[in-house]
Amino acid sequence: MRNTAIIGAGQTKHVKARDDASQAELVRQAATRALADAGITLRDVDAVVLANMELFEGRALPEMWVGEGAGGYLKPTLKIATGGTSGTSACIAGYHQCASGLFDIVLVVGWEKHSEGATQTGMALVDPLWDRSVASGAVGNFALSISQYAAERGVTPTQAAKVAVKARRNAAKNPYAHLQMPDLTVEQVLNSRMLADPVHLLDMCPQSDGACAIVYAAQGVAEKLCARPAWVRAAVTRHDQPYIGDLDRRLVTMRTLRDAARAAYQRVGITEPLKQFDVAEIYEPVSYAELAWYEALGFCAEGDAGKLIDDGVTEMSGELPVNPSGGVLSTNPVGASGVIRVAEAALQVMERAGAHQIPDVRLALATGYGVYAWSDVIILSADK
Amino acid sequence: MQPITILGVGRTDYAPKPGVSIPEMVHVATQAALADAELTMQDVDARVTASVDLWDGLTASNIAITEVVGAVMQPEARVAGDGLLAACHGAMSILAGAYNVVLVVAHCKGSMGDSAAISNWTFDPIYQQPLGLDDAAAAALQASAFSLPPPLERPPADGAAAVILARASETDLSGFRRPERSLALNQIVNRLNPQLIGMGWALDEHYLGDRDLTDAPALRDAARRAFSMAKLNDPKRELAWAEISEHFDYQRVLWARALGLADFSNLNLSGGLARGVPPFVAGLDRLIEIVLRLREKPGTALAHGCWGPCGQGQAVVIADSAIVRSCDSAIVR
Amino acid sequence: MTELLKISHTMTLAWRYGASWYFAEFIRALRDEQRLLGLRCPICRRVYLPPRPVCGNCHAELREWVEVKDSGTVRAFTIVHTPIIDPTTGQPRPTPYGMALIQLDGADTTLNHYLAENDPAKLQIGMRVQAVWRAERKGTLNDIAHFASISPIAERDAQAASSQASSSKLQSPISNLHSPISNPQSLFITAGVNLSFNYAAGKAASRFLIALRDEKKIFGARCPSCQRVLVPARSFCPRCFVDTSDWVEVGPNGTLGAFAATDNLAFALIRLDGADTALVHRVNVTNADELRIGLRVAPVFAETRRGHILDLAYFQPA
Ligand SMILES: [Zn+2]
Ligand SMILES: [Zn+2]
Question: Which of A53, A134, A241, A288 best probes binding to C when mutated, by most C CB atoms within 10 angstroms?
């Protein structure tokens, strides 16, 4: 496997509705910024990988129209779509393409424009033989798994609210983040509208319009273009049974994330993730999920996730800052969300994260989450 | 590039199957490919699937096939497009060293919905979709550019196709965790399976008025990449045969010309797509056709897939009946 | 600042979803016999609901039908307060309502379904619930209105009653139905959507469409790199990936480059005078035989215009 690194990243300012730009124009803005960040032009790009959940915008083969915005014309261009993990899966696909030796530089762009679809549009086209008969929606499905996780692990609504507050406080340092709520309090989260017990409105991610792009370069090219490339050290995907009731203990066990992390840690030689990682950008669509991921990712023992947030271990100033960008809780253009995790982890390694830069990042973790149970784990490092 | 062995192929028949679920269709094709490769699902490291949500009437259409492609607690990526593109991506991930054995599966039920109404949602929603364009209308425009009448549409068909790709170099098999799998693969590579030796894919412009519809620059570009990877200098003489995706009759001449295969006699010996092959399965089905022929007759062959309005997306794969000797890892051609 | 337009589309599509032998049998038993069937894995012995062709954990084909009870144990629950469009009715489902993951007796998976109860104080993990069936069954999960809690005593009585009932009425045996894939008897269901989408045109396309609407003018935009005048105008050149520069009024007349006559309208590629690319649009001719490459055409604008590509209604022979 050829060593491959991320040498540039770019994103749009994520907002509720980008009425000023078509999907192709939105993608072009992120792509252009990533190319500029990498110090290259489109001519240098050998291949393009796109990510998007096409039915949120009601499209068939959206890359046909939108691909031009990523400079896909007469380039090897393909789109990866795996639900919520689309972005991280596209990042893994782009990594494989670059590591294969066939392409030296690969551009990955993820996007979503939730504002262009009717609410719950993407969710309307679920399995008609089963899921359409019992409508629970994403929030209801999360809440079912969360109620069980919280009961079993003793996680409190206050601890979850602290995650939500941390995310929004961090987002205030990130000019691209959608939600800007620097002064949000735990009380405000707990007093926000109850969506589905125990999930409050402010426990949930928003729906955003946005795009994010990263640039991969192979060893030999990466060092010339970037003073401190973010080398990919591991990239692991695990999918799982799709029916919501198949695994009634999803958040509790989260076996895909656990196994993907185990495999990735083994490859890189990580035995104490909390100590060894300098930063993590994890895909938390809801506050409680971040706590469950702490356990699945081995940041703490089972049942200790609440203590981790209580003790401030995952704050910007803590031992392992989690989601200094503000995370999915602050910004969620779904097809881009996974790319944002990887881009933000890379920016930390490249020391280009700006106001939310964590000092001395050498090892960074990024994760993707989708279909209520699927996981991607990607490890980036300043060392090859 | 390092060649990639095509270990097994499988497919369903192609016909409207109103009562058959997509998972069952995919299961049949997948099991056929595994049986053909003499492998079990445990031998597969990763999957690349190909499907398009709006054709399936399902959000994240790969969700429904997770179990039948063996993706539970395993890697899978879905390429939204033709299965031949998925095969290219699967080959990339093997070349990257990420996986040793990759299952590539494509499916579509062309008879599930109104294909004209569905393909209208491929056109950009601002300038082209509101006009009422669909794939058939776009094809009629392209045909008229050749002064040909509107082409007949193929009969709608449902089906799935599967191909199993593996790292060709035997030295890499030593790294397998399970010794019996290494053994199984060694037996397979002794069976003279064809190899994937070249690939390329590219996108054309989207706005139909920007394009010269009498030309196919994306296909020329994809072919150029595939030929150079396979080290073919004179494809017309070096290729034994080619299977191309002529979704409409007029495309046969257009694609052949862009591939440098004008007047090539061994084109679509299988009969091509005329009998009705589902969209997004067609390209992978072309690959299956050349693999089956390469097992019988030595040579080098080409498979072509395309998707989107007037073949906006194009993919080309070159396969070869290279002989792999079991005594060493050298590849004799 | 430019007025920003959105282009609306309504998706009215329907699909025929194949049920295959496993869902066909499940639906038959549900509708005709008010029974719930699961499929047992021959390797791990797990009983799966919903039915499916393969156990994802063992890669084994599922063939053995097992009857699952309509009572079970709550493994997780929530009270949903946020209105959600119920796909079966198209209407928001009244809130609050209870939902649970219920492990039906005899199943190894849980079923997500509604609860009769919506007071969280009266719910707990581990509680026993019983399906409340609708009077009329259609063969969907919705034939169960919801699950209601049952007390252990009531459950014991109900079990005694049902064992009496089942001994008194003859039930059809569970069929081990595994039809070949081409079985024309297999079932499919038709389901559709009616959804609205509003696509941002962006600044450049908005300006182009506003010029159609307000001035009946057609604009192209020049690419400073390849020098092509791209029509309709847009913000960037797809070939050169650079911003377009000056805007150029083109046409209004042009030349037909390709055409496609369908049942009720004809599409054409029209090279407008002064443009380097063709406009894709509609042409209207009294006789389709008039269409030929090289035909000179002129635009006809709609009476009422709204900032849309069809403000230019069609072209006709000049
Ligand atoms: Zn099993
Ligand atoms: Zn240009």
Answer: A134
